[in-house]
Write a structure and sequence with these properties.
Elements lengths: L6 H5 L8 E9 L4 E7 L11 E7 L5 E7 L8 E7 L7 H4 L7 E9 L12 E7 L4 H6 L3 H6 L2 E8 L6 H12 L1 H7 L3 H4 E7 L10 H6 L2 H6 L9 E7 L1 H13 L13 E5 L7
Parallel strand pairs: 7-8, 7-10, 8-9, 10-11
Antiparallel strand pairs: 1-2, 1-6, 2-5, 3-4, 3-6
The chain binds flavin-adenine dinucleotide and adenosine-2'-5'-diphosphate.
Length: 278
Amino acid sequence: MTDQRPVTEATATPITLPDAQTVTQVKHWTDRLFSFRVTRPASLRFRSGEFVMIGLLGDNGKPLLRAYSIASPAWDDELEFYSIKVPDGPLTSKLQHIQPGEQIILRPKPVGTLVLDALLPGKRLWFFATGTGIAPFASLMRDPDTFERYSQVIMMHTCRDVAELEYGRQLVENIKSDEMLAELFGEGFADKLLYYPTTTREESAHMGRITDNLTSGKAFADLGIPGINPEEDRGMVCGSLAFNTDMKTVLEGFGLEEGANSDPRQYVVEKAFVGDGI
Ligand code: FAD
Ligand code: A2P
């Protein structure tokens, strides 16, 4: 039978992208930050903390892809991402306008160093993040394995101002009050998760860079933790290259050694983005 539909109707059909996933939710947090959820490919298996390549079709018709940490936990039916909006960024200048029902490209090949298996067993697990570097920890904080392996989990997140902390603040609040998670994670898990947000350029309850609050001992005094030592403490770091470099110095100063998937040790690091000229 011949297709009787007018040509104009045919052009309204959604374009089928390679590895296309449908956007289900978008939330704008500030003029620089937004989060969104997409359908999850049935075949996608990942370890909490890993990243994938996602993107859109560029003007030349070719996929324009960037690395993104999966912010949702492995048990979630959908995938969540937390994103920067770079005003003239090739991808995010467009991605920031996506709407539910639209499609993105997602290459289902997760990788990354911020995984529990890259660390030796310990007592406390520290997550150190600046800006969108909280994304892999948004996944790990919702993974029951995290709380099975460690008796305390400490999320330190630093941004310039209070509004930039809001995604993480709501996330931690929701994790702690979620009845389904309480059932999944076991009794008392909410008390195992400590949250230490700070700002550096706006007045708030706790201020200062993560590096300074660790070296001065302020974070330990505020949290009621004696300090970081290589026997008990494990760390995961995710931020700008400058932050990651400074954090390595701080953690090595406490006697921790950097690990990897193939060589688990006391801390691991991953870039939250690749900076200008790097
Ligand atoms: P790009 O050309 O990629 O970047 C332009 C400039 O914007 C960069 O040079 C840098 O100065 C700045 N920039 C880029 N990303 C960020 C950022 N996240 N925070 C602050 N400044 C930034 N980005 C996310 O928003 N969320 C994530 O979960 C995330 N995970 C990543 C994981 C890995 C392993 C890596 C390497 C990068 C990750 N990124 C993430 C960065 C992401 O890949 C892109 O750089 C970002 O989406 C901007 O893309 P763009 O094409 O608009 O601009
Ligand atoms: P500061 O305001 O003192 O620069 P940005 O928005 O530039 O990516 O920074 C996010 C947060 O990370 C800011 O609070 C910033 O503090 C902090 N930061 C940037 N560089 C470092 C670093 N090398 N060590 C510790 N914190 C850093």
